[in-house]
DNA sequence: GAGTGGTCTAGACCACCTG
DNA sequence: AGGTGGTCTAGACCACTCC
């Protein structure tokens, strides 16, 4: 009951009944996911405005013909995404968001492509070398063991942006230079059945050496953004170690953090 | 045998029965959280070694006298932390070694987390100024509206590390310089009842101006790491806009990413 | 006191992986 | 075929917030 009360309150009323959620029980897509998607769409479209209360979970589950845990699971996934906030004793409301994508294990290639910058990649080196101490430690190999070294120069609009140096465990992946230049390394890994799970990154800065400056089209001593990353697949096996440098004048890392209680 | 094979290994036996989980139903701490904590402790202590299967959820719930959803909730929280991996039809296993230390991604707090190393803060400026266009946009205010400007120099071991420049909405917070120097801005916000929810960050690099170099003890033109951040509370209201610069020779951002399916 | 989310139970069926 | 996690149900009681 109590949902017909049409009083104008400071925190706007649901108006959620206007939304018709279409749940398909025959679909392979889980019900909670269908609901989450449609809620998210409603938020993005502005049907659910920031600050709006969502209406209580019990009513919602009854109206949708779902159990409360299922509805909760849908809501929780949006809370995890930072779109909703729950307050005990109050309700669930849409966050005032300037939200952008939460930092993903970003491949530079994907970032640039998403920005519509038509990335171009040039494979500079691609050979097998003995692992340096640092590389061996990162990849969990013995020092001097062979690793695949991959060095690429990435540009947009004809201007170099980054120099990417990657080390991969031997035999991990079939690397074809042409495909590497047409797509990104992570994309190739994914299509080779390697599912990335996590990565440890260190982002810093330093001045360009003469050689780096020449390759990137900067002046010697120019500020460079550096990133070192070790990526792991879902078994915890290291699959990539990379040291990347970016022209600070043309690139920066942009991401959103969510604070988890 | 060498583990150069592509397969995830057949995986060791649980040995989980050796663990005695002590669950206190009288505690205000939720059961799933108690279980998660004890599982995590077992993993950190190495009782549950990387690659170990956890034993199936049904058995586990029976042995613990919990329902399966409760056990699942505990496991899920560790999966979210990246400590465990689930595979349908296979089981739940501990992620392999290296990935473990989450090094909490909350870059948000690392000003404070570093507190273990006795950081010192000096409030350089603390006054009310009209908002610049960029500041006004970030904080959702009108240009020229008054904001609190806070400039701090942070050092460790007697060496400057960062120059922190923050802008806060007027009247948000009572700022006492002594407390600001004794603790961090975020800690003061929290104790004032402001719960941080998310932040948007941009990390880049640039060369130090003469003035910046002098303040930070670097040479002019030295590489600096820059961060620009807008932080929001749980209603989506901007509560802080900051532009920070760090000595790249003494500071870098270090974090772990998890890939969410 | 009324309403909200937070937690928990005891089942059930299904999809997937491995042998 | 047997075991695993993935999903879902229909209830229950509690803790918290607000009026």
Structure description:
Two copies of one chain form a homodimer. The first copy, chain A, starts with 30 loop residues before the first helix and ends with a strand. The longest helix of chain A is centred in the N-terminal third of the chain and has 15 residues, at 31-45. Residues 1-15 of chain A have low confidence and may be disordered. Chain A is built from eight helices and nine strands. The relative contact order of chain A is 0.11. Helices cover 27% and strands 30% of the residues of chain A. Chain A is α+β, with helices and mostly antiparallel strands and 261 residues long. Chain A is elongated. Chain A has a six-stranded antiparallel β-sheet. The interface between A and B is large, with 53 and 51 residues. Chain A binds a DNA duplex (19 and 19 nucleotides) through helix 3. Chains A, B: Residues 29-97 form the HTH gntR-type domain. Chains A, B: This is GntR family transcriptional regulator. Chains A, B: InterPro entries: Bact_HTH_transcr_reg (IPR050679), Chorismate_lyase_/UTRA_dom_sf (IPR028978), Tscrpt_reg_HTH_GntR (IPR000524), UTRA (IPR011663), WH-like_DNA-bd_sf (IPR036388), WH_DNA-bd_sf (IPR036390).
């Amino acid at each position: 009951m109590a949902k017909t009360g049409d009083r104008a309150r400071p925190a706007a009323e649901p108006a959620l009944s206007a939304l018709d959620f279409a749940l398909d029980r025959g679909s392979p897509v889980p019900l909670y996911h269908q609901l989450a998607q449609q809620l998210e769409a409603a938020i993005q479209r502005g049907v659910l405005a920031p600050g709006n209360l969502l209406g209580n979970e019990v009513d919602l589950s009854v109206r949708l013909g779902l159990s409360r845990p299922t509805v909760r699971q849908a809501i929780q996934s949006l809370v995890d995404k930072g779109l909703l906030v729950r307050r005990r004793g109050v309700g669930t409301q849409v966050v005032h968001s300037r939200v952008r994508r939460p930092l993903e294990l970003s491949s530079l290639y994907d970032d640039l492509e998403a920005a519509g910058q038509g990335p171009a990649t040039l494979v500079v080196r691609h050979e097998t070398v003995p692992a340096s101490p640092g590389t061996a430690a990162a990849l969990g190999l013995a020092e001097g063991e062979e690793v695949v070294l991959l060095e690429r120069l990435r540009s947009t609009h004809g201007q170099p942006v980054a120099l990417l140096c990657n080390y991969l465990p031997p035999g991990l992946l079939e690397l074809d230079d042409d495909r590497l230049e047409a797509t990104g390394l992570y994309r190739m890994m994914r299509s080779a059945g390697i599912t990335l799970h996590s990565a440890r990154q260190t982002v810093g800065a330093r001045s360009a050496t003469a050689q780096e400056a020449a390759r990137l089209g900067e002046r010697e001593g120019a500020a460079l953004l550096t990133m070192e990353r070790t990526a792991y697949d879902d078994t915890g096996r290291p699959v990539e170690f990379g040291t990347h440098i970016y022209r600070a004048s043309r690139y920066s890392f942009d991401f959103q953090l969510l604070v988890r209680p």
